[in-house]
Write a structure and sequence with these properties.
The protein is of the alpha+beta class. It has six domains: 1-26; 101-178, membrane protein fhac (Ubiquitin-like (UB roll)); 184-269, membrane protein fhac (Ubiquitin-like (UB roll), Roll); 275-350, Ubiquitin-like (UB roll) (Roll), CATH 3.10.20.310; 356-428, membrane protein fhac (Ubiquitin-like (UB roll), Roll); 432-794, Porin, CATH 2.40.160. It is 19% helix and 43% strand. The chain contains 14 helices and 37 strands. Strands 18-19-20-21-22-23-24-27-28-29-30-32-33-34-35-37 form a 16-stranded antiparallel beta barrel.
């Protein structure tokens, strides 16, 4: 048996040696001149791709080294699973086996991520329909998917890749995901704090252990990025309060065995509290030391404040930039006296070289035209670099409202030390708006408002809007179009065309109506970077329809203005049932709020003057609005709003009653029915409005209980006071006159929510000062409306 085994082993070794020798003999080819090159095994790849990639051509001398190089070049294409070269005489035969092509990529079970976003991400790394299948690339894609789920606290997520061969050497690729439940933060601990309580420090964090609204805020879902942001907030909190040497020693995240709960421990070292002993300047300040000193916000004698240091160095850098020094270096160098807990700061400056802007590029605007962005620039090409103008350019583009992000990067030009390029990158957002409003009152029941607008029509920067109102007493259709750059100097032009049918508030038994139709054109002239003045002219007509002609159902003020005559309680006709006019308007606006959607700081001012110059109406009507937002802290904001209005006729004319101001409800004094305040008709009790208006509102915005620091869901309390007024009406008693002049006020609470459908505001108000019914003196009771809401949505 042993002899047989030995003979078998010898024969095997002999065969292997013979095979190796014959293989080497076949591979070791004597150099020859290539007469032809043939390719075998191609299905979808073009032969030209092979010939272009090979380092061998017809007429070249073939060697083993060139053959090896050709095989490596073809493998590098990533299109083939196998490549061989055979030599047949002086003909080179290339034999390839193509990789299968991906026919389709599918995701199954993905709820956390949008499938189109995932497909685009894989396409960017080469894994897409029509491309060669690469197992290594598919494995990397699977690992990347798992990593993305871990970043969303889905530690139990499982991804299974399935490759299904189909006809014509193709495969279907599917990623089946079992997401599981996200890991929740069980607790967060801060260790090493002495100056401030743990609860105070944890209140700075956006992440927490959860509350009853965690299903919405997701604040208890762990995210490394969010934790890093919270740690930066914690660091900033200490550095702005004198703790110059504060540091975070470590951050430990422990996960439970079932991978469902997380515990986060942050170890900190507060260090000592330091006071600033002095500030001095060193370096080259262009001979403008006094100007730079005026920019210093660091206060000697006060605790060290990192934000003040950052603000000062940034202000210095920006000021250098305004003189063309784009690469100025400003460094705050602390000299620490640990014995006395004092720190002296030296601001070292080196302006470097002055440069000018060679080129400005814009990217990210897939829909918005380049010219719409470029016309907002105040930094021009081939001009000296000006940091103030660049900052202003970015702000102007951001204020367009078309983009969620606007960034400007300064790029050096290789080989040209005195030149830079500016690269503006924008991220577009939906600029269409759909507005829905609803209200409930005993008179109108449920009423709806509808509006649709597009702020950036076809990427042109023009505005187009349509407003509809389906109220029982007010029906409106209005079309508005604005071209913000009617001229190259930035003068805007707005057209308005409207048709309104109104039954003034509120005559429940009457069926009279007021029809207003017309149009206007308005031009906006920018007088500065923040101030715009508007000039406009319009043509309008008002037509009065008394309805059933029963006088007792039509307000006396309207009958008087339109010259209606009555007989036996019936309206027999109106001498001026149609009036027309040419109103001229002048307006001014300045908006310096940090956000139009959720403002926390800044100011808004508007003023408007309307003058009736021609036709049947001679009057003037002015209004002014002032808003101010005060950030009390990261979580709390206080806001005030004030509105004043005044109107009067001139010449021998009567002030048009339909130009009156109205108050009550959303946007003025909550707790009262919309536009119900002010004088009323003695018989029909219809609200007539007034020629004077005074409104004041105060609000404080607070975090919603259980929502942490989430700014998309807020709770607010408010106080409203004001009214509309007019001259004493004929026949009014002293009691009626006093009741008319009395201020109305209310207090309440509300919810502000930037919902998936858009911003929503819900308010519940309780009147504080209101008018009770006094039948003996003919004084009616104010109409109340406790609950009101408004919602808008973007698409």
């Amino acid at each position: 048996m042993k002899k047989k085994f030995s003979r078998f082993r010898l024969r095997s070794v002999a065969v292997l040696v013979a095979g190796a020798v014959s293989s080497l003999a076949a591979w070791a080819v004597e150099p020859f001149t290539v007469r032809d090159i043939r390719v075998e095994g191609l299905q979808r790849v073009e032969p030209g791709t092979i010939f272009a990639s090979m380092p061998i051509r017809v007429g070249d001398t073939y060697t083993d080294e060139r053959g090896s190089a050709a095989i490596r070049a073809l493998f590098d294409l990533g299109l083939f699973k196998d490549v061989r070269i055979d030599v047949n005489g002086n003909v080179v035969v290339v034999i390839v086996e193509e990789r299968p092509t991906i026919a389709d990529v599918e995701f199954i079970g993905t709820k956390e991520f949008d499938k189109d976003v995932l497909k685009k991400a894989l396409r960017d790394v080469g894994l897409a329909d029509g491309r060669p299948y690469d197992k290594a690339l598919a494995d990397r894609a699977e690992q990347e998917l798992k990593r993305q789920y871990v970043s969303r606290s889905l530690y139990n997520a499982e991804v299974v890749t399935t490759v299904t061969p189909i006809e014509r050497n193709r495969v279907n690729l599917s990623f089946t995901v079992t997401e599981g439940e996200p890991a929740r933060i069980k607790d967060i601990r801060i260790v090493g704090n002495q100056a401030y309580s743990e609860s105070t420090l944890l209140g700075l964090f956006d992440q927490d252990s959860g509350g009853w609204l965690s299903w919405y805020t997701k604040s208890n879902q762990y995210s490394r990025a969010k934790l890093n942001a919270d740690l930066e907030t914690l660091r900033s909190y200490y550095l702005t309060r004198g703790y110059l040497e504060f540091r975070i020693d470590s951050t430990q995240v422990a996960i439970s065995p079932d991978r469902q709960d997380l515990s986060v421990t942050v170890n900190i070292n507060e260090g000592q509290k330091f006071v600033v002993s002095g500030v001095k300047l060193e370096g080259n300040f262009l001979g403008r030391e006094d100007e730079f000193k005026s920019l210093v916000t660091i206060q000697p004698g006060e605790p060290y404040n990192g934000e003040q240091v950052t603000e000062t160095t940034k202000a210095f850098t920006d000021y250098f930039g305004s003189f063309g020094y784009a690469f100025a270096r400003v460094q705050a160098r602390p000299e620490v006296d640990r014995v006395n807990n004092r720190v002296a700061l030296t601001l070292q400056a080196e302006p470097s070289r002055r440069v000018y802007v060679r080129r400005v590029s814009v990217s990210g605007n897939n829909r918005t035209r380049d010219e719409v962005i470029r016309r907002e620039f105040r930094q021009y090409e081939a001009s000296w670099y000006d940091g103030d103008r660049i900052k202003l350019s970015r702000q102007r583009v951001d204020r367009l409202g078309y983009f969620t992000e606007v960034n400007v990067d300064t790029l050096e030009v290789p080989g040209s030390p005195d030149q830079v390029d500016l690269a503006m990158t924008v991220t577009e957002k939906p600029t269409g708006t759909l507005q829905l409003g609803a209200g409930y009152s005993t008179a109108e029941k449920i009423s709806f408002n509808f509006g649709i607008s597009q702020e950036n029509v076809f990427g042109s920067g023009n505005y187009l809007g349509l407003q509809l109102n389906t109220s029982k007493y007010n029906r409106t259709i209005q079309l508005t179009s604005t071209n913000p750059y009617f001229t190259q100097e930035g003068i805007s032009r707005t057209f308005d065309i409207y048709y309104r049918t109104t039954r003034p508030y509120y005559a429940e038994d009457g069926d009279y109506r007021l029809v207003n139709e017309g149009g206007s054109i308005r031009f906006g002239v920018p007088f500065s970077e923040v101030d715009t003045v508007y000039f406009g002219v319009g043509l309008e007509r008002y037509q009065f329809d008394p309805g059933s002609t029963v006088a007792s159902t039509t307000p006396q003020a309207y009958r008087d203005y339109f010259g209606c005559t009555t007989a036996n309680g019936i309206i027999t006709g109106c001498t001026n049932d149609s009036v027309w006019g040419i109103p001229l308007t002048v307006a001014w606006a300045r908006d310096a709020r940090d956000s139009a959607l959720v403002p926390t700081s800044g100011r808004l001012q508007r003023a408007n003057l309307e003058i009736g110059t021609g036709g049947d109406m001679k009057y003037y009507k002015g209004s002014y609005q002032y808003q101010q937002f005060f950030p009390l802290s990261k979580a709390y904001t206080f806001a005030v709003n004030a509105e004043l209005g005044y109107g009067r006729a001139y010449g021998d004319q009567v002030y048009p009653i339909f130009k009156n101001f109205y108050a009550g409800g959303l946007g003025s004094i909550r707790g009262f029915e919309q536009n119900s305040l002010g004088p009323r008709d003695a018989v029909t009790q219809a609200s007539l409005g007034g020629t004077k208006k005074a409104i004041f509102n105060a609000e404080i915005n607070t975090p919603f209980p259980g929502a942490g620091n989430d700014r998309t869901l807020r709770l607010y309390g408010f106080f409203d006071i004001g009214n509309v007024f007019t001259d004493r009406l004929e026949g009014q008693t002293d009691a009626q006159w006093e009741a008319q002049r009395k201020l109305r006020s209310s207090v309440g609470i509300g919810i502000s929510w930037v919902s998936p459908l858009g911003p929503l505001r819900l308010a519940y108000a309780v009147p504080v000062q209101s008018q009770k019914a006094d039948p003996a003196n003919g004084i009616p009771e104010d109409r109340m409306q406790r609950v009101q809401f408004q919602i808008g949505t973007s698409f």
